[in-house]
Amino acid sequence: MTLLQTKPAQSAVVEVQAEAAFESRLTTEPEAGASYRQYIRKVPIIRESESCLDVLNMFAKDPSIPCVIYCNEEDRPSGLIMRDVFYQRMMGRFSVDLYYTRPAFRFADHHPMKIDMSERVGSLLQMALERPDSKFYDCVLLTDGDRLAGVLTVRDLMRLSSGLQAEAEEKRELILQESYRHTHNIQSSLTEVREAAAKTSSECKQMREWSHTGKEKLELVRTSYLGLVDDMTKREGQASELVQNASRISSITGMITELANQSSLLAMNASIEAAHAGEHGRGFQVVAVEVQSLAKQTRKLSGDISELLQHIERLAADTAEGAVSSLREIQSCESHVSEGSQMFHEMETTVHEIEISGNRVYQLAEATVQRVERVKLELAGMSNSDVSTT
């Protein structure tokens, strides 16, 4: 099982530490020449005084020496003598007489490839590969400033290239693993987003239903308030009409009282005239007394009715005033109900828009989760293919 198939750490601290280690491994820059310092070879240095025979003796004494370097008076590397090329030159039929005593630096390549230690490994390998065929197998001179640090053979360059490939493959594997971990975390987050969006959509739907129900109930209350306003308006009118009728009845009662007073006065005059008539007016006097008594009762009843009408008028006025006050309160409440109904309408519209947005988020999260799943499968396939090839 590869690392891509293991479960990622659940602890946030572990994830942060893993990310820090990963970033450190990917971003740490080596010092100049650190990547190929271990491959540098130390080789002998010659001056103008060394002869070709001296160089042959050096090669014979140490078969592992690939070359020797000629350094000028300023101790700067100025020439390269490769073992095989030098042997071929010195192994001729007359070479002993012609070359052995001559200065060896004259047979050196005075234009070897020199690369400073600060050069990146990639650039070094690129320049070495771009050399012409005649110099392709020559050593590469590494300098530290103007001084010789050592050489790299073709074998060293191949080993260096192989090491770089292994390091690049290791970084690639790390990147694949980290990418897999990140995609897994993204997938988990998107799954949570998708679930939250689905829950939000469901709750928004329920809220929209509640808002619609509340709106309908407020509309019913508003309708009831309007009916109550109409009824209170009618009652106010009836109370006002009752006050007016009571006033009219009170006026009529006053007229009745006036008539009773006049009847009492007439009865009194009739009684006086009957007394003057003596025996003949006695019967008329009895009628006059009865009329006077009836007028007195009528006046008393009229007074009672007047007091009752005044009381009724006061009650009707209080009722009308209360109806007006209640009507104002009801009208004020009706405006609040209308505002509440409007708010429910706006809430229903807003919740519906949120529900639509939540559905879009859910669909996008679902599509993204599927894409991330495909990426995870591709990353796992790449890692497995790397394991199978190794």
Automatic annotation (TrEMBL):
Keywords of the record: Transducer
Biological process (GO), any one: signal transduction
Annotated Gene Ontology cellular component terms: membrane
Record-linked Pfam families: MCPsignal
Tagged with keyword Secreted: no
InterPro entries referenced in this protein's UniProt entry, alphabetically: CBS_dom_sf, Chemotax_Me-accpt_rcpt, MCPsignal_dom
GO molecular function annotations of the record: transmembrane signaling receptor activity
Domain named Methyl-accepting transducer: residues: 176-383
Family: Belongs to the methyl-accepting chemotaxis (MCP) protein family.
UniProt-recorded name of the protein: Methyl-accepting chemotaxis sensory transducer
